Amino acid sequence: MKKILAKDIGSIGIHILFMILMLTVATICSLALRELGIADANVVVVYVLSVLLVARFTKGYAYGIMASLLAMISYNFFFTEPYHTLNVYHVSDIFTIAIMFAASFLTSALTSKLLQATRLAKEREQQTNILFQISSSLAKASGVSEVAAASVLCLTNLLHTDVIYLLPKENNSNMLYRSSPGNGNVTIRDIGFEKIDAFTENRSVVPIGDLGNRYGVVCIPTPSLQENPGRQELLPAIAMQIQIAMDRERLSEEKKRADAEIEREKFRSNLLCAISHDLRTPLAGISGTAEALTYSLKDETDRSLVHGIYEEANWLTQMVENILSLTKFEDGKITLKKQPEAVEEVVGQAVSHIRKTAGTRELIVEIPEDILIVPMDAKLILQVLINLLDNAVKHTDPNGRIRIKISKDKRNIWLDVSDNGSGIKQSDMPNVFEAFYSKETRREGERKGIGLGLSIARAIVRAHGGRIFAENNPDNGATFRFSLPLKESSNYEE
Amino acid sequence: MKNEKTMLIVEDDKQIQLFIRFTLENQQFETISVTTGAEALRAISMNAPDIVILDLGLPDMDGVDIIRTVRSYSQLPIIVVSARDQDKEKIEALDAGADDYLTKPFSINELMARIRVILRHNSQPTANIDAPFRNGDLEIDPEKHVVHLKGTEIHFTPMEFKILSLLARNPGKVLTYSYILRSVWGSYLDSDAQSLRVFMANIRRKLGEDLANPQYIITEIGIGYRMIDSQQ
Description:
The structure holds two protein chains of two kinds.
Chain A: H1 2-35, H2 40-57, H3 61-79, H4 91-140, H5 144-159, E1 163-168, E2 173-179, E3 186-192, H6 196-200, E4 203-209, E5 214-221, H7 222-227, H8 229-296, H9 300-330, E6 339-342, H10 343-358, E7 362-366, E8 373-376, H11 378-394, E9 401-408, E10 412-419, H12 452-463, E11 468-472, E12 478-485
Parallel strand pairs in A: 7-9
Antiparallel strand pairs in A: 1-2, 1-5, 2-3, 4-5, 6-8, 9-10, 10-12, 11-12
Helix pairs in contact in A: 1-2, 1-3, 2-3, 2-4, 3-4, 4-5, 4-8, 5-8, 8-9, 9-12, 10-11, 11-12
Chain B: E1 6-10, H1 14-26, E2 30-34, H2 37-47, E3 51-55, H3 63-71, E4 78-82, H4 87-96, E5 100-103, H5 108-123, E6 133-135, E7 138-141, E8 146-149, E9 152-154, H6 158-169, E10 174-176, H7 177-184, H8 192-207, E11 217-220, E12 224-227
Parallel strand pairs in B: 1-2, 1-3, 3-4, 4-5
Antiparallel strand pairs in B: 6-7, 7-8, 8-9, 10-12, 11-12
């Protein structure tokens, strides 16, 4: 503070000296003019000129006004009768003095004002330039790290001081970007959180970012900010620009990550699809061969071994088909081939398909007297029903009962598949339709597997614009019910 | 005892070909196995098999083209074998004149059942189209337009009667939607498919079919209908 005051006093002194010098020169010139006998009017002009020069080369109105007063006094002292006194004899002299004062006063005021306006305009231009330079160098930077480096370089150029950017990293540490005036380099270091205080001490800290996204802080030595009040005003604008650049980089990185994720996902499902596809033919060979052998082998043990191969191969085939359906659905490769179909036909075929695996379980079908024709992709809805029936068979005893009911309301038909089996455990309830969800508890003899059947069912029903639910019956067992819209149009509604 | 019937197996997967051959030879059939469409066509003209079992996914030729070629000069029975996602090809094959189809992985029993149906129908002399015929409890008299079920007369509308007789005359054989529509309506429009569904539903109700356990008509979703062969 003291330094600044001393500096101010120094500049005031220089200005005053300059003013006195100008007026002295003007007085000497005027005295010389009078000696040469040139008219008094020129003396006035010389004084006004000197005031103008004072106003031009000093700052503020004060010196101009002071110069005007001094010019008036010195004119009165040297050039009006009686000379070398401050008295005036002639009325015309009073006029001359007054007009001279008014002229010099106005001139100095106008000059000062003009100067100030020019200075302001220059300052603005410079600010705009600085902001432009910063924004263009930020625009060129790609990646969060480059933006931080560009930021410190710009701020160093602007404030002629060393600037630090602390960028938080994911692993609880910070990247430190530092640039010092003169070398145009940025040093980058990795520092722990505990060391941050050492870098923020004696520095003004400008946070970058808003509440949602924080991109660290910029640290600038406090004294250099105070020396440059004009530049300090720019800081919020610069901080905003850095934030925008950071936002841009974050979004583009997020997009890159998302793209890579999609690519990986696509690759995974293509691979799964290709593998499943290639598994089909050998599986058909294995199950067919095993079946052929069960009919021709004479020995009971051999037959049961081969029958085991047959069953396992069939199970694998089922799994492969399920994976294929699911991957096709997830890729959106399946396009629904909707046609008006009789619901009872689809139900009928599903039941006759499941009859083989249902064994001694009782199968009951309730259909309304009306013939219900609903637009659907019959092969897929058949698959939904088979999957639900399969699920019911798995969860019932061999003497259990499975019931299929078709009903309708104003907009939908409803298909219920209920059983009197073990029901759904409360803990499994939220996940029954999730793919790759394997129940924690299994029934005896139940194969551990990934429950794809129900998630495929859900995918198909949703693609038809229908809904699917699972619930436990009041007495025992569970009911799975799904709807299909009677009319087209409500496709793909969740 | 030799069956004296010759089966041509057209299948490019060795293992599947092997077990089909094994099963058929166990049933005392003669077999010829080939792996390409070109070989199949040669074998058909050279060896005159009684039934062709044709895989639709051959490396060299479209299975449907083979059927069309064969049908241009012969009514030789053809059973097509297809993968699960080859519905379109399956229907094309049936419409091109294939007699029946199987979807991989298929059971040996299914294959044998198909073969038995074809052999029996081939051994029967072509009946007079107007002669009455029966299928289990179902008796149909085309000339008098009457249907008896377990001795009781059931009334059918003319259209229902046409569809029912068409199915009953081809027991055990799957008839595609378009085949039924072309035979009964004389034309095939997609919009007719819905009417066919309704006719079938009415026929089923009149026959008193239990959906869970049909006695007469089986629906083959996406393909067509099949009358159950009571002699199976």
